[in-house]
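Weekly structure sync, notes
Attendees: PL (lead), two postdocs, one rotation student
Agenda item 3: pending single-chain targets
PL asked that the sequence for the first pending target be pasted directly into the notes so everyone works from the same version. It is reproduced below exactly as submitted, 487 residues in total.
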Amino acid sequence: MKKLVISLIALLAVSTTVMAQNEVDALRFSRLMYGGSARYMSLGGAYGAVGADFSATSTNPAGMGLYKRSEVSFTPSITTNKSSSTFGGFLNEDTKYGFNVGSAGVVMVFDNPDRRTNSEWKSFQFGFGYNRLANFNNSYLIMGKNTTSSILTDYVNKANGTAPADLSPFDTQLAYDANLIYRPNTNQNVYTADVLGVSTFPGVNQTKSIQTKGGIGETVFAGSANYMDRLYFGLSLGVLSLRYEEESTFTETPSASNTIPEFTSLTKYDYQLIKGNGYDLKMGVIFRATDWLRLGAAVHTPALFSKINIDYNSSMSSTFQTSSLNATKNSPDGTYSFDMTTPMKLIGSAAFVIGKSGLISADYELVDYSAARLRPSTDFTVENQRIQDKYTSTSNFRLGGEYRLGMLSFRGGYGFFGSPYKSNINNGEGTLYSLGVGFRTSDYFVDLGYSSYQMTEDYYLYGVSKLNAASVKTTNNTFMLTFGVKF
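Predicted structure, written out during the meeting:
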């Protein structure tokens, strides 16, 4: 039973997934694209040494130490997520729209009440609120002609050697009960399919539609301190909420009529809902070396997710030239719980402040994706070994700039996110471009921002063969509007 459950909790990724490879879980929930305020995102998220923005509590909480006045802010955002897939020489596109809250928070500033005898500590800050760390809202359409294999080839390979009563109720048993795979000799557990009974494989048309939604949000509780307006220290506790929901429909038909005896079509539907909660700690420091140079560093502990729950089910329909063979079969409802630890992160930052005219900032982030783990470890020995074999450490770089003209500010940013994969087994590199404008007075501010994140990866329709992989490019566009009041 454990083998069946593991094969199902594998179907995850912004991007690309493969059945029976649940190391994808660890990667999906470790690759965070920090959401936040419009100013934060307009600078490409390069905020580790800038400070004085609530979003920074999820990157470098020491940034709260640069607040001089208390503040409340709110950032709604609209997303348009576009995917382009190439499979079997065919290009297809799909788009999904969404609305969410990128950031909402309050920061309270308290002057040191004992400044006469302890004047080095200028002020203390406390903040709490919400930052969105990942967005799973996407829609994919993959369609093309496969001239090398059928999904039934994969089912036959999985089923061979297994009695019908012991087949997986979520795939191979569904295919068997729907008459798509069968045993020519009922005394042997050797299976075949109509598509395998032809002398020359004629090719099949395959389509897969995937709808995903959800995200990872972080409720943040943070504190910071300002020492002599030179050193700023910060610590935050993040309470994480994770939700991922996916529906996928796969269809297959002969690429030309009457080329496969009996077989006319199959449709496979899969559903899964993953929910869980976790927590992490973030510690940071910012050093104002001069009036024009700030240096920052932050450490994020591994995020600990406890009892992530997955609910799932599948169904399969078949049609044949002999209509009496047509069938629709449903799996039982499945459920399973597991724990997960994501990698720690190290961030180094620098910001060059150009008087009152603007600033240039940069962040460097190091993440070792091979350090993620599924738990209990005794149940996931093979899967955790795959994480170590498949993933590696990577560097992420973010750059941002701001130019001020009176009460107006103009911003831009860029980010490069390295591939988490070893040995070029997949792509996975990402790029981020951002723009923004802001209007600020001494008491309130309004910021507008736009960011576009692009990534290309392979998506396996089934099995692990590159011949069954589609190249999928995702472009996630986000428009943000931040309202803030100082008091």
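Discussion points:
- Residues 279 and 463 are 34 Å apart (CA to CA).
- The mean pLDDT is 91.
Action: rotation student to compare against the earlier draft before next sync.
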